[in-house]
Specification:
With about 230 residues, the chain is mainly beta. The protein has helices at about 5-15, 185-195, and strands at about 35, 45, 55-60, 65, 75, 85-90, 95-105, 120, 160-165, 170-175, 175-180, 210-215, 220-230. The chain has a single domain, classed as Exo-inulinase, domain 1 (Jelly Rolls).
């Protein structure tokens, strides 16, 4: 039949076309997301004030896992960010806790928390009789409590989101906005003055910096980490 040679030619032309490059992740507005972990490598991360990753961080079933809680386990992104939308999933062991900090300046202190405000990660059921407080999961750690308890039990995955745009900051947990504040505002500074950070002159003073993850307070896992610049 005559259509067979034509069909063969069409298939041959399709096979010879160059493979399309994978498109970057975008949202409906066309903004590009940056994946910070591919499930296999730590290319976007390194130890705090270190060039390599601490040995205790490993890949566990496609997740970043702090397997050996000890000193020197805090990590930071290789890039710095100013205004951003950061999404990630996390879980902790029973009784575990960790934290994600941002606008971290390595030159200003020995630890990430000396500059960066912290999104708290916690097994809420193991602390404060499970009651909401300013150290609960998704809190602005020791400064502002989440508006409600939406954290999942230990060893279950939680979805988190941190949005920073100018002075405006939002913490989201499992689809619920639980913290919102204006960094440097009168209300925010009054809350900081009543916190453990009141004696640290550099805390919260930076306007750009690294994303940091605390890895020395118990086993913690992360996956699906992605960030979008808003500046």
């Amino acid at each position: 039949m005559k259509f067979l040679p034509l069909l063969f030619l069409a298939l041959l032309l399709i096979a010879c076309q160059p493979a399309a490059e994978e498109a970057p992740m975008t949202d409906d507005a066309g903004s590009e997301w940056i994946s910070l972990f591919d499930g296999q490598t730590f290319d976007h991360w390194r130890g705090y004030k270190q060039e390599a990753m601490p040995e205790g961080w490993i890949v566990d079933d496609g997740a970043m896992y702090a397997s050996t809680p000890a000193g020197g386990m805090d990590i930071v992104t290789r890039e710095t960010f100013t205004d951003f939308d950061f999404e990630f999933e996390w879980k902790v062991e029973e009784g575990g806790n960790s934290g994600v900090m941002w606008h971290v300046d390595e030159a200003a202190g020995d630890y990430p928390w000396m500059t960066g405000p912290e999104y708290q990660l916690l097994d809420d059921a193991a602390f404060n009789d499970g009651q909401i407080g300013k150290n609960s999961a998704a809190s602005n750690y020791d400064v502002q409590a989440p508006s409600e308890a939406v954290t999942k039990p230990a060893m279950e995955w939680n979805q988190a989101r941190i949005v920073v745009q100018g002075a405006h900051v939002e913490h989201w947990l499992n689809g619920v906005k639980v913290v919102e504040y204006e960094k440097g505002s009168e209300a925010h500074m009054a809350a900081v003055a009543e916190s453990k950070w009141t004696g640290y002159a550099t805390y919260g003073t930076t306007s750009t910096g690294h994303i940091a993850i605390q890895g020395d307070h118990g086993a913690v896992w992360f996956k699906n980490l992605r960030i979008k610049r808003l500046d």
